[in-house]
Amino acid sequence: MDKVVFVTGATSGIGKSCAFRFAASGYKVIIAGRRSDRLAIIEAALKSEFSTDVFSLMLDVTNRENVDQAIGSLPEKFRKIDVLINNAGLALGLEPLHEGNPVEWDRMIDTNVKGLLNVSHAVIPLMISQGKGHIINIGSIAGREAYAKGNVYCATKAAVDSLSKTMRMDLLPYGIKVTQIAPGAVETEFSIVRFNGDEQRANAVYKGFEPLHPEDVADVVHYAASLPAHVNINDLLLMPTAQAAATQIYRV
Ligand code: NDP
Ligand code: 8X3
């Protein structure tokens, strides 16, 4: 297979699992993230497990210059990007709005919304020039249903929902598919980041039920990318069986 997938936030969780899932089916993989030590380990693992071509991009999606420079400097064989997975993202804090930290709001908005825009803006011209492509945005149940104390994180994921719809319209003339995959609770480093390294609080989020595993999400993302050219999943909500709504989880 001569296909390239570009995964943002590939150093952990859903993005890392997507990198492995696509490499397993023969894709060349561009892995991006800020932590270069992790990129090096993941690149080596992908190469040895799947003998595939891997390119690591140390990239902060919030830094537009960094994004433009990094994507502009991709080697020729990685420039024909078939699938872009806009996955990099984070939540910080879980407080009522008036007790929230505006610095954390900025980081969530800059990463989850502006980061997705920055990367898409740099990659879309490459897809237009090849007359095809597929952008898969990782949304969230939090973008469908606001929940108490989720304020800014929920708003950023509602923005991903809205941007996915408008991108699909904007890119329609160019044969570029746009899909949103919106998961419920997935056990990754997400809650450790959200609670600033408090592992006890993070672990409690996933106690008493089986959450999604990042590999489950990667399988669905890969499925969406594997459909025939004339078929697109516009939008898909993917939940743990034990979770019926953003704040309704059946725990035993
Ligand atoms: P993780 O914390 O495990 O992974 C987050 C990834 O995002 C890391 O690879 C991190 O890489 C990257 N990232 C964060 N900030 C930046 C940045 N500024 N520039 C580049 N990369 C960045 O969390 P998940 O895998 O769970 O999260 C992935 C996506 O899934 C997020 O968009 C999240 O909102 C979404 N999601 C998660 C759910 C969950 O329950 N876990 C449910 C629904 C959606 P690095 O630190 O190396 O830069
Ligand atoms: C992550 C899922 O419910 O913690 O997007 O917001 S949730």
Q: What's this, in brief?
A:
This protein has 252 residues and is α/β, with parallel strands linked by helices.
Approximately what portion of the residues adopt beta-strand conformation?
Answer: 15-25%
Low-confidence stretches: none
Biggest sheet descriptor? 7 strands, parallel
Radius of gyration: 17 Å
Number of helices: 9
Q: State the end-to-end CA separation.
A: 45 Å
Q: Can you list the strand order of the major beta sheet?
A: 3-2-1-4-5-6-7
Q: What's the shape? A: globular
Let me know the average pLDDT: 98
Extended strand count: 9
CATH architecture: 3-Layer(aba) Sandwich
CATH topology: Rossmann fold
The CATH C-level name is: Alpha Beta
Count of domain modules = 1
Helix content: 40-55%
Order of helices and strands: EHEHEHEHEHHEHHHEEE
What is the CATH homology-level superfamily? NAD(P)-binding Rossmann-like Domain
Q: Class by helix and strand content?
A: alpha/beta
Bound molecules: NADPH dihydro-nicotinamide-adenine-dinucleotide phosphate, 2-hydroxyethylsulfonic acid
Task: Please explain how this structure is put together.
The protein is α/β, with parallel strands linked by helices. The protein has one domain: Rossmann fold. α1 runs parallel beside α2, α1 crosses α9 and α4 runs parallel beside α6. The N and C termini lie far apart (45 Å). The model has no long low-confidence stretch (mean pLDDT 98). The chain binds NADPH dihydro-nicotinamide-adenine-dinucleotide phosphate and 2-hydroxyethylsulfonic acid. 2-hydroxyethylsulfonic acid (8X3) binds next to α5.
